[in-house]
Design a protein that fits this description.
Strand order of the largest sheet: 2-1-3-4
Shape: globular
Distance between the termini: 7 Å
Largest sheet: 4 strands, mixed
Order of helices and strands: EHEHHHEE
Amino acid sequence: MKIYHKTSCITCKKTINEFQRMKVDVESRDFFKDPFTEAELKKIIKMTGKKPTELLRKRDKTYKEMKLDQNKKTDSEIIKLMVKNPGLILRPIIISKNKALVGKVDPKEIKN
């Protein structure tokens, strides 16, 4: 199982700790220190079954500054913004098999 996270994010820390308590083998990556490529992010978004806009952190400062709630962008433009500004990406991102779950997730719901 893979977890993409931000080291200082409390939700990310709680999720990783919960998996460790459950003795789940977790490979983690801080995508602020080791950013996603556009291709990686596209693949992850596809695995969620959601649109790129659904994976935006609406509380992020950049989101508000860019007025992304009012400023209509294409999926491709949103992905480029997410790669450039990782704070816009909802986290943590959990990859289990061929599925990606994003945001607050109860680790008990994930089957290895």
